[in-house]
Amino acid sequence: MANGMFSTKGRYALRAMGDLAQHPGWVSLGDVSERQHISRKYLEQVIALMHKAGYVESLRGKGGGYRLTKKPEEYTLGQILRVAEGGSLAPVSCLDCTNDEICPIVDTCPTVEMWRDLGKVTSGYLDSKTLADLIHEEGDE
Questions:
Q1: Angle, in degrees to the nearest 10, between helices 8-22 and 77-84
Q2: pLDDT value at position 100?
Q3: Contact at 8 Å (CB) between 98 and 86?
Q4: Tens digit of each residue's pLDDT (9 = 90 or more) over 94-126
Q5: Which among 100, 70, 96, 72 has a CA at the least distance from the CA of 85?
Q6: pTM for this prediction
Q7: CA angle 69-71-77, nearest 5°?
Q8: Which residues contact 87 (CB under 8 A, 6 or more apart)?
Q9: Could you write out the DSSP letters of every residue in 15-54?
Q10: CATH class of segment(s) 8-139
């Protein structure tokens, strides 16, 4: 069984993007890795997803690194998690339209509506929060 609703990749994506939001300008992955206690190799995979989605840009060479392509308030946490998680924030696999599996009892399952409603609440919450909210909350502790 998984250890929660979101994978390590999703959690690390939020931490990495939050770190970039807190440090304007070009930021080296080594610095993000050190501050966030994420292995550089794993961080490279996560940042590659964010780069492919157009959420970060990169600059090679001395003084280079990564930076956000937009202001922190222009990214929702839902957007970042969907990219990191492969498109879906479904709380259970039977509601994940990206997995090519249709549950054989979806029409008669007594729990499907509850899971669907939980997914709507979760998505609504994550889509209402931005990267700016995340970094302001961290700073308020």
A1: 130
A2: 61
A3: yes
A4: 776 655 666 777 778 888 888 889 989 999 999
A5: 96
A6: 0.85
A7: 95
A8: 98
A9: HHHHHHHHS-S-B-HHHHHHHHT--HHHHHHHHHHHHHTT
A10: mainly alpha
